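WARN retry 2 of 3 for item q-0093 after timeout on previous attempt; input resubmitted unchanged.
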Amino acid sequence: MSRPRGRLSGAAILRQKGGMSRSPRRPRHALRRLLLAASFAFAAAPAAANPYLDVCLDPATPPATAADQCRRAAEWGGLSAREAAQAWTTAGVALSEMGRDGDALAALDKAVAADPGYQPGWAMRAISRARRGLSEGALSDWEEALRRAPRDWRARLARAAFLLREGRAEDALADLERAAAMAPREPDVHFNRGLALAELGRTEAAREAFGRTIRLDPGDAQAHLRRALTRADGDPRGALSDLDAAVRLAPDWAAAWATRGRLQERMGDAEAAMRDYRRAFELGLQAPWLNERIEALGG
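OK item q-0093 returned
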C-alpha cells in the first residue's frame, strides 16, 4: 500500500490507499476561514480609508474576488506592515484555492517581506511551498511559524500532514501529540494521529484515534473507513459496520464501496462483494485490481 496522505484541518487532501479515489471534500473556503480565525491575534484593525480590505478579509468572498481585492488592498497604500501582510496572506490562500500555486507563493513571499513578525504568513507559505514540492523551504517556514507561535496547533497539524506524505510518521506523530494536547476536541488532529499510528504499526492506538475522531464528528466517512482498516483482522463485523457507515455517509465515494467489497469477499460473501465492486466501478474507480476482482467473481 502507498503512503498515507495527511489531512489538513478544513481542507481534506487524503487519498485512500490502493489506488482509491479522492475522499469527500470539505467546504470550499474553509482554509481561508481558518486562516482568518488563526490570524485574529496578529491582525491590526482594518484601515478605514482602504476601500478593498473589508471584501478581502471576508471569508465568504469568492476566491477570484478575494485575490483581486486583497492585491488591491495591499497595493493601495496606507496600510500598516501588519495589515499588508494579512492582505497578501489572504490573497495567497485565495489563489491557492483557485489552483494558482505559483501566484499564491509569490503573494505569500510578499506577505513575509511586508511583516516578518506576522506568523500566519510563514505558516501559509509553508503550505504553499509544500504543495509545489519545495520540501526544505516548507519545513523551514513551519519552523519559523512555530518559533513565533509555539502553541499554534494548526501549524503543527499542517506540518504533520506534510511529514506523513514524506514518510516521516514518527516526526508527524510528535507534532500531532502536541497538537492534541492543545486542541483535544479537533477531529482532524486525531484523524491524522490515527494515520501516523497506523503507519507505525500501532494498530490499537490508531483504532482509538479514529474512534476519537468519530466521537467528535460522527459524520466523518474517512474516519469510519480508516477505523475499519484497523479492525478488519480482529473484528471483521465491526469493520463491516464502519464501512456501512462510510457508504451511508458518502454514497458517491467509490473508495468506500470498493473497500467494503474487499471485506465482503474476504468474509465469504461474494454476491455482496460483487455489488460493491460494481458500484465502485460505476462511480468511476479505475484500478486494475478492481477489474480483476469483478472478472474473477463472474462479473
